[in-house]
Target: Response regulatory domain-containing protein
Amino acid sequence: MPRVLLIDDDTEFLDVLSEWLTGRGHEVSTLSDGTAVLTALDEFQPDLVVLDGLLRGTSGSTVAQEIETQRQLRIIYVSGLPRDEFPADRPVFQKPIDLDVLDRFIREEVRAAADGT
Model:
């Protein structure tokens, strides 16, 4: 069961996505901002992070850098911002997102990480 940490300041979107992914067999933990991300990494031990590109008070890129100082994790951006606002090597899903496509992508990313690719 993939363990997914969701970080988004839109709590309604966060609730919908969390419930949807949980219903498809993912174990999910949520944060509505990036302030407690290091604690969440230690306590929840996610397989990957789904991260909003723009959080209240900070950017998704800043939170991603903080994550990368602690763990080698795959990060998927979900945002309403244009694609060119993100690093070229990062997957980005534009809001509104197709939840089925995101679910498949998460599973592929977790499988690739487990295989070391």
Observations:
- The chain has a mean pLDDT of 93.
- The CA atoms of residues 90 and 100 lie 19 Å apart.
